[in-house]
């Protein structure tokens, strides 16, 4: 890695400049990458919608968002990993699986990072703050032959009310019995004429995730309903709901998601 670019990369990580797709000039044209286990490589397209050329660096991580890129060991290569993008131009990234062993009975999650560094103007004189923008999306390695399907998995998640961390209030615990990651853009609990927000997160295969419910100070009554928006492989939102003690029932797809 070129030293000056390495410094910019580490500065961006340390400052937490993880950009939304709308604010960065460089746009990732997918919201997530699904890597079929039987494939050797997949591609990911970028485009520079900004008015200036930019330097771009790409790398992977395993969930450690603040880890320096050179410290991360993953079974993938990405080419090109560093390049210039001119305005209104695109770039196709090749993501290559090195065939190092990964679990074959469930998905494994990695992250793709794209760091955009704008050029330094001729009159900056070294005194102007140069902001870098970083975008980060999921890469899910999906072995061939997993039972069921990713689209069916949100409906198989079970939900239960549990005490919140610290013993104050209550939370929802989602348990995922499937081999796929369940990505949830929004989780809400409706009870007693009120709605409580649990935010969004992913539930790992064969694991659980606790969603703290803001403002939920009393255990919900028998009318409680969990409503959620799951995110499919294409970034689309799918509504789901369940009464506690019943399986979730997916409904029609919604608008494009994160």
What does this structure look like?
The protein has about 260 residues and is mainly beta. The chain folds into 2 domains: about 25-120 and about 130-140, Immunoglobulin-like, CATH 2.60.40.10; about 155-245, Immunoglobulins (Immunoglobulin-like), CATH 2.60.40.10. About 5% of the residues lie in helices and about 45% in strands. The protein contains 1 helix and 18 strands. The protein has one helix at about 5-15; strands at about 25-30, 30-35, 40-50, 55-60, 75-80, 80-85, 90-95, 110-115, 135-140, 160-165, 170-175, 180-190, 195, 200-205, 210, 225-230, 235-245, 250-255. The strands form 4 sheets. Strands 12, 13, 14, 16, 17 and 18 form a 6-stranded antiparallel β-sheet that branches. A 5-stranded mixed β-sheet has the order 2-9-8-4-6, with helices on one face. The chain has a 4-stranded antiparallel β-sheet with strand order 1-3-7-5, with no helix packed on it. Strand 17 and strand 18 form a beta hairpin. The radius of gyration is 21 Å and the shape is globular. Mean pLDDT is about 85; it is low at about 1-20 and about 245-258.
């Amino acid at each position: 890695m070129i030293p000056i670019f390495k410094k910019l990369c580490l500065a961006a990580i340390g400052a937490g400049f993880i950009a939304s797709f709308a604010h960065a000039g460089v746009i990732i044209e997918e919201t997530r990458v699904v890597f079929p286990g039987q494939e050797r490589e997949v591609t990911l397209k970028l485009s520079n919608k900004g008015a200036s050329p930019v330097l771009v660096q790409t790398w992977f991580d395993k969930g450690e968002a603040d880890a320096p890129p050179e410290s991360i060991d993953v079974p993938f290569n990405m080419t090109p990993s560093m390049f210039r993008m001119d305005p209104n131009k695109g770039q196709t990234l090749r993501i290559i699986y090195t065939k190092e062993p990964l679990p074959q009975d469930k998905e494994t999650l990695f992250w793709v990072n794209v760091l955009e560094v704008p050029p330094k103007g001729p009159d900056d004189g070294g005194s102007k703050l140069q902001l870098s923008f970083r975008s980060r999306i999921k890469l899910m390695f999906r072995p061939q032959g997993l039972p069921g399907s990713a689209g069916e998995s949100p409906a198989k998640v079970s939900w239960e009310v549990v005490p919140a961390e610290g013993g104050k209030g209550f939370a929802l615990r989602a348990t995922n019995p499937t081999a796929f990651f369940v990505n949830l853009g929004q989780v809400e609990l409706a009870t007693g004429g009120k709605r409580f927000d649990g935010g969004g997160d992913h539930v790992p295969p064969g694991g659980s995730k606790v969603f703290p419910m803001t403002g939920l100070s009393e255990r919900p009554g028998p009318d409680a309903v969990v409503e959620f928006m799951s995110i499919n492989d294409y970034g689309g939102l799918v509504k789901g709901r369940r009464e506690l003690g019943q399986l979730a029932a997916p409904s029609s797809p919604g608008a494009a998601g994160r």
